[in-house]
Design goal:
The complex is a heterooctamer, with 2 copies of chain A (about 80 residues), 2 copies of chain B (about 350 residues), 2 copies of chain C (about 270 residues) and 2 copies of chain D (about 180 residues). Chain A is α+β, with helices and mostly antiparallel strands and about 80 residues long. Helices cover about 15% and strands about 30% of the residues of chain A. In chain A, the strands form 2 sheets. Chain A has a two-stranded antiparallel sheet with strand order 1-4. In chain B, the strands form 3 sheets. A 7-stranded mixed beta sheet of chain B has the order 3-2-4-5-7-6-13, sandwiched between helices. In chain B, strands 10-12-11-14-15 form a 5-stranded mixed beta sheet, sandwiched between helices. Chain B has a two-stranded antiparallel ribbon with strand order 1-8. In chain B, strand 14, helix 12 and strand 15 form a beta-alpha-beta unit. The longest helix of chain B has 21 residues. Chain B is globular, with a radius of gyration of 21 Å. With about 270 residues, chain C is an alpha/beta fold. In chain C, strands 3-2-4-5-7-6-8 form a 7-stranded mixed beta sheet, sandwiched between helices. The radius of gyration of chain C is 19 Å and the shape is globular. Chain D has a 6-stranded mixed beta sheet with strand order 2-3-1-4-5-6, sandwiched between helices. The longest helix of chain D is centred in the last third of the chain and has 19 residues. The chains are: A alpha+beta (about 80), B alpha/beta (about 350), C alpha/beta (about 270), D alpha/beta (about 180). At the E-H interface, loops of E face loops of H. The complex binds thiamine diphosphate (2 copies), iron/sulfur cluster (SF4) (6 copies) and magnesium ion (2 copies). The site of one iron/sulfur cluster has 12 residues of chain C, from helix 8.
């Protein structure tokens, strides 16, 4: 089962991940980070299907994905 | 004639347009992007032409073609871009084409940085490229003067059939100041028609060939001698400088140009408040250089202070002017760092405090 | 105990880039770094940064680097590769850098068949200097040096580098891809892997043109930018492989019924 | 007699604009003025700032090492410019985005919750105008009316914007005036 | 009273050229001059000489002239034509001048669609400087900087300018011809006439690549040289029209089965 | 160690190869085509690499990449081609890369002519490009010296991590003279390994970045100061010149460099026969310039004669050296015309005949 | 009827005209001209068919053709 | 003591070659030598020449304005260099291609029908060697044997060429010796 970890301070608030997530489970925080950006956060972790599209989309490598147990990959990357 | 608050880069562009500059060829580079950007907007309004060249090399050669066609043309760039124009500028000088080249200097060498510097002085005034030639080099210290000098530059270029460089720094390009343009500006020179331009040949006048090639050495030497005569004339007639406090009796003379001279003028005022009188000669033409003015002003001082945003470039011309008659001190910053009025004032106090006869620390 | 299945590649240094929010330069950096990791060549790789927004790329990759003058990265790459053929050499260049001032250098580097890899980031604009027109700027697209939009009658049509270079006879791998969607980014990575592999195997020159966004100078939010690219750039800049080293030459033949090869007088 | 100020904040907060408006108004009042923006790498995201000088005599150095006033619209700006401020100078802090007070005790501090007020006024982008107003109120560097004039012309195209910005200016002016200083 | 049916065209000055015996630069000069005469544009024509053996072209044509720096004639032409659109502007350039150092200038001049005419003389060598390798030098051909013959593995294959430029989207007239036989010279003149006509009618950029001999640096007598060209150059440099302003674009499409235009993620 | 009769251009190429120059990047231009031609034949024989660049711009940047990889590399060109390298050379200096650049000067400006001249002196020594940097400039007067200086150039370049220019003229490039190469040449400097080269990064040493960009002005200023220190060191340690007749007591001092100095030496011999003793200082390093040597030699003369194939370029350095202490006379030819021994002798007699105190006619 | 006039002093002796003439009626003189070249000359004027190939071939415009009366052209030029 | 000579003719007459051979032989005899070719536009067709200096002392100027000897292989060369020849100098004229005599009467003239002789010897390309021989004969600048040595090495590849050229050299030498001068 997959877990998405977004580092608030690496995020620049571009919202591309939010747009990319097929599950629509990412959103923007109301808080401003050190860089002055509203950063992205996971809203509904459980619904994550571990597709990694958010990770692949993020221009700032602010998103990591961890997996508990094994999981099926939609595509090789 | 109303005052407008303009960015230096835009004032330079507008000044050119009002001086009848019809074509602009250039390539973007910080800190002067606003010049091509302004021209791309403004020239079409007056039926002129803006071309973004593929490179500075191309720009300098487009300039060659357009100037050779008899039009008033300009390009602008910043340090690395100017270096790329070296060959082209040598051709322009060799073919005696009137063009205006604006260099908004940034810090070097190499890619360096994008902040203001004066590290291109020796390039502009002495070693711009191969072969024996000179550029007229004009150095403004305010947005208004930048505008005025750009307009004069076109007249000087046409009159002497020689490239003219306006040498500013990042501050001149970026800052906004009030500017006014004369509605009825008259050229500063009697300008003959450009009969030499290559605009077609119906036999009514001799064929025009825009050229810098002379395979016969005797012919080339004659050409070199004609150029030398022209340069001697320019050195005789076109020297410009501004004098500050030369009428007062002063202990020390400052020599500085461009925005640095402005910083110095602030320092001079502060020093005046504290009872120290300092004079300044601000070269406006860097070539031809005001050797005589600097020498005469220095004769009445105990020492001279040269202030530059470089490792020490204009100081060579001050040395040539002084011929060892007075100790020369040097204050500089580099890399985009700026000299502050306080730093100048402190340096002056230090010099005057110390034995005026001390060896130059430059 | 969880396993991390996606994280920063080793070849990408753990620093914040100066890129604007949503700028896909960052994605392209990561893809290149992942490929270097996967091919295991990081330690013998030397990158060449251009002059452009990616001028500081040397701060972002965990490899040795050269900072080249504007447009000349392919010449610098030639110097490095000829001096040290054992190194993996890549340039990372923008469209102003490569397609405008650097046109002669890229054409000749490709034509000599230098065994280097060129990552060509086409964002249809001069990003770093504040949004001036690039040779790749789209017709009608507004830029600071074409305030009324690119006029093809005065500035010509956008240059398609992948197409142009693939007409050279010298063998090469040339492809165009995009990173404005995650799936295309996956494809882009595949193209980069093929390009670098050709170099690792000493086969040929390789160039991957990557369509990229410039939200800042396009004047739209990052999300918009991806759609703008999709709508305006994709139709003119088709994706795909244009040339493979063994694929033979791709130059156009003379139009029929013209001059022809009519031989001698007699 | 010279007034100079460094105004700083995030890109997009309209810092350069209020600097230009101030300089323009100064010119209108027959003063010598200069406006100098920061330029360079910061332009990518990050902070931006400008230096405005308003003087009776020709402006010497357009670069001010130790300004008579600083308008800090965000934390990085405060950190960067507070130390340079002249003793006795004016420090305007946008408390909406800055959660620390001034570190200096030898300067006049004017705290302005610019973004909050702007939101109140239903003009969220007007925080910069509030800060400008505060600066004018505290220094009288140029007259409020003069600035209002310039604002009218600047936004001539969009009358709606004009009014909300003038309101913002006045609100800022009141706050500043309460701390009027001579710098 | 006999009628003279063939003699020196008015646009060609009555002076002896410095060209070597049998050098076809002379033929190309005459053809250009004849076309200028026939179109009646001599008086409003401005030519641009390159740096190369034809550097003194300004002494040979009865028109105003510019002597450009090496490779930059297309930029000079741009400057002239933009300043005086009423003038007929042509450059006369060698293959070292145009295809090596001047690559960026010719590509961008063509891509901007400058309404000028380029006469591109391809003799597969640097003539003036004594026979160094040109980008157009044939594989195996000996030159003073490739004494063992051009090695395509090190120097790449010859660049085909007509083919490369015809892939640009901007409308243009681009053709290749040769003058090594009288009949081909007749065809070459026709190509030149079409090129200049496009300019006179303000239609588009035009470039005519003319295959030419360099007996001196090829190291063969003039008669031999024409046969060398026929045998070695013609097969690689096909003659004909490659692009016409209304003929549409000629760039290669992506190879099938590659990346493709796969759209958004969703 | 046997003498060979070699063309200057070939001797330069062979000298480089024997100094361990492994790569050559260049573009043909008269009068130095024999250098690239020789290298294209010779380098492959020693496992080296010759690349004919598409232009001088490209050549200077290929140099950058190869030098940054730690190899000994060279390029050669002539005046217009050198101007095209201006930006590249500024980058090389900024990134502190050791390279050798040969400039076989021809007459300018622009395309000019192809015959010998010395019109690139100011470019080479002062204004080569934008930003504050210097090139070491070595000026040979014979084929043998050209060969020797090229080899020293590689050592100096590596030792100081700075571009070095060998500045010759068309005669040096074209003439044949006997040359010999030491079989057992040792570097003139202790050369440290090039740990700074960018040759891959396995973490065993800090990451190598070849770079001239410093966006932070304070950082760039530190870089500029480091460069300045290096240049000061070079000015202190690397000045080279040849003295002729300095031990005799002479009436007049000639200052000339390169092949012109050879012409002067012939004139000096002729004059000696007719009882006139003339001394000469021949700068071998044009930068750093032998100011002190010239000054001291001039102190013992009544007047100084500068002879150049230019409109008057090195004479500026002589002025800086003399600081007005002695009248400076000038003899020059341009455009590819050469000074003859007789012309020099006549000029000397004219000066000595005339009042030594007369105003300089330069 | 066509007449070929070759100017000895313009000729550089390249022999291209000799090679081009379908009638083989051109040859090289034994004399050297001012430029030091053996120049071309018409050997058998009468057999000239007026094709102008020699004129078109000559890189130095050393060959002129005159026509007495009218004549037929093989191709337009 | 110094010998210097300007040798000039059409390109292709082998002028530069005999100059090199002369310089090379000089070097072999322990003399200081320099060889300087003309370069430039003439290279296209036209004439070419070279200057050779052979001296006991280091060679000063490799460029000789007024040479001690001139070898003119064609008319343009004679026209160009005869006036520069030093009074009392040596002028070698290739009468095969030059139909005028010397204009100077203050110099020693050696007339050599070089091409005719070369044809006689069945070595039409040997005219240059005959001229070189004549120069050696007249000046003794370097020894004939020394030059022959160099010729042997130069053409080592083609022995046939060696012999005919040596014969040519000797024939020229005889003619020159008959006019031996001290220059
Ligand atoms: C010789 C020279 N000319 C111009 C510049 C200014 N300059 C810096 S980056 C750039 C263009 C960058 O655009 P691009 O290559 O498309 O890269 P991007 O920023 O879009 O990624 C220019 C013109 C320079 N640094 N040097
Ligand atoms: C900047 C510069 N680089 C190099 C040269 C030397 N140069 C003169 S002509 C030439 C090449 C000419 O070859 P090409 O263009 O093919 O013309 P061709 O002589 O063959 O007709 C070169 C390299 C120069 N004059 N200027
Ligand atoms: S992995 Fe896929 S589903 Fe999970 S957050 Fe990322 S994009 Fe959404
Ligand atoms: S894509 Fe990355 S930077 Fe952009 S919002 Fe998401 S996490 Fe932040
Ligand atoms: S300006 Fe454009 S290209 Fe540059 S970093 Fe910002 S978004 Fe990216
Ligand atoms: S060198 Fe070649 S191209 Fe040049 S004139 Fe001679 S034959 Fe023609
Ligand atoms: S016109 Fe034809 S037939 Fe007559 S000479 Fe010329 S080539 Fe021969
Ligand atoms: S073609 Fe012309 S130059 Fe050649 S031989 Fe015939 S007439 Fe003479
Ligand atoms: Mg871009
Ligand atoms: Mg050629």
């Amino acid at each position: 089962m997959s877990q998405i970890v977004i580092s608030p301070d690496r995020c620049k608030g571009c919202e591309l991940c939010v747009q990319a997530c097929p599950q629509q489970i990412l959103g923007m925080s109301r808080k401003i980070n050190a860089k002055g950006y509203f950063y992205a956060e996971v809203v509904e972790q459980p619904r994550c299907i571990g597709c990694r599209l958010c990770c692949i989309t993020c221009p700032d490598v602010a998103i990591e994905m961890r997996v508990h147990g094994t999981m099926y990959h939609y595509f090789a990357y | 004639m109303t005052k407008k608050l303009m960015k230096g880069s835009e004032a330079i562009g507008e000044a050119a347009v009002q001086a009848g500059c019809h074509l602009f060829f250039g390539y973007p580079i910080t800190p002067q992007n606003e010049i091509p950007e302004y021209m791309s907007m403004r020239l079409p309004q007056v039926g002129g032409t803006f071309v973004q060249a593929e490179s500075e090399v191309a720009a300098s050669n487009m300039l060659y073609g357009a100037a050779g066609s008899g039009e008033r043309v300009m390009t602008s760039s910043s340090s690395p871009g100017i270096s790329l124009m070296a060959e082209g500028i040598s051709y322009l000088a060799g073919a005696q084409l009137p063009v205006v080249i604006v260099n908004i200097m940034r810090a070097g060498p190499g890619l360096g940085g994008i902040l203001p510097a004066q590290g291109d002085y020796l390039q502009a005034t002495k070693g711009m490229a191969h072969g024996d030639f000179r550029l007229l080099v004009l150095a403004p210290w305010s947005v208004q003067e930048a505008a005025d000098l750009v307009q004069d530059a076109f007249d000087l270029a046409d009159y002497y059939r020689n490239p003219v460089m306006v040498l500013g720094d990042g501050l001149i390009g970026q800052m906004m100041e009030p500017v006014e343009f004369a509605d009825d500006r008259v050229p500063i020179k009697e300008l003959p028609p450009k009969g030499w331009a290559a605009t077609g040949h119906d036999g009514s006048k001799p064929r025009s060939v825009i050229n810098s090639l002379f395979l016969d050495p005797e012919e080339l030497e004659r050409h070199n001698l004609r150029l030398k005569e022209k340069y001697d004339l320019i050195e005789r007639d076109e020297v410009r400088f501004e004098a500050v406090n030369l009428d007062a009796d002063y202990d020390l003379l400052i020599v500085a140009y461009g925005t640095v001279a402005r910083v110095c003028s602030t320092a001079i005022e502060e020093l005046a408040d504290s009872g120290v009188t300092v004079a300044m000669v601000r070269p406006i033409t860097l070539w031809p250089y005001p050797y005589l003015a600097v020498r005469e002003a220095a004769d009445r001082a105990t020492a001279v202070l040269v202030v530059e945003l470089s490792a020490g470039q204009m100081i060579e011309d001050v040395r040539l002017a002084l011929e060892g008659t007075k100790p020369i001190h040097f204050l500089n910053r580099m890399g985009g760092m700026l000299v502050s009025p306080d730093a100048v004032a402190d340096k002056v106090r230090e010099i005057l405090g110390a034995d005026a006869g001390e060896v130059s620390d430059a | 105990m969880p396993e991390t299945v996606f994280s920063r590649p080793e070849s990408l240094r753990d620093v914040t880039t100066h890129y604007c929010p949503g700028c896909t330069h960052g994605v392209i950096h990561r893809l290149v770094a992942e490929v270097l990791d996967e091919l295991g060549v990081r330690q013998r790789t030397v990158g060449i940064a251009p002059v452009g927004c990616s001028v500081l790329a040397y701060n972002y990759f965990e490899t040795d680097f050269h900072e080249a003058s504007h447009g000349r990265a392919p010449a610098v790459a030639t110097g490095i590769k000829r001096a040290r053929p054992d190194l993996i050499v890549f340039t990372y260049q923008g469209d102003g850098d490569l397609a405008s001032i650097g046109m002669a250098e890229i054409v000749h580097c490709a034509n000599r068949g230098e065994k280097v890899t060129v990552v060509f980031v086409n964002n249809a604009i001069y990003g770093m200097t504040g949004g001036q027109m690039a040779p790749t700027t789209m017709p009608g697209q507004v830029a600071t040096t074409c305030p009324l939009g690119r006029d093809v009658d005065l500035a010509g049509h956008p240059i398609r580098i992948a197409e142009m270079l693939s007409t050279l006879r010298t063998p090469a791998f040339i492809a165009r891809c995009s990173v404005h969607t995650p799936l295309l980014a996956v494809n882009a990575k595949e193209m980069l892997r093929r390009a670098f592999t050709h170099q690792v195997e000493g086969r040929c020159f390789s160039l991957v043109e990557v369509l990229s966004t410039c939200p800042t100078n396009w004047g739209v939010p990052p999300g918009e930018a991806t759609r703008w690219l999709e709508k305006n750039m994709l139709p003119y800049y088709p994706l795909g492989v244009f040339k493979t080293p063994d694929g033979g030459s791709r130059e156009p033949a003379p139009l029929s019924g013209s001059g022809g090869r009519s031989g001698h007088a007699e | 007699m010279q007034n100079d100020v460094i105004m700083a904040g995030f890109g997009g907060q309209g810092i350069l604009l209020i600097g230009k408006i101030l300089a323009y108004a100064g010119m209108r009042e027959g003063k010598e003025v200069s406006w100098l923006p920061s330029y360079g790498p910061e332009m990518r995201g990050g902070t931006c700032n400008c230096t405005v000088v308003i003087s009776d005599r020709p402006v010497g150095s357009p670069v001010i090492r130790s300004p008579r006033a600083v308008v800090a619209m965000n934390l990085p700006s405060l950190d960067k410019f507070e130390p340079d401020l002249r003793p006795g100078g004016l420090l305007i802090i946008n408390t909406s985005l800055i959660d620390r007070g001034a570190a200096r005790d030898d300067v006049t501090v004017v705290s302005v919750p610019a973004n909050e007020i702007a939101n109140e006024l239903g003009n969220p982008r007007g925080a910069n105008m509030i800060a400008l107003g505060a600066y004018l109120g505290a220094t009288g560097a140029v007259s409020l009316d003069g600035v209002i004039e310039v604002v009218r012309e600047t936004f001539a195209a969009k009358p709606a914007v004009v009014d909300v910005n003038i309101t913002a200016l006045r609100r800022g002016h009141e706050i500043g005036a309460a701390h009027a200083v001579a710098v």
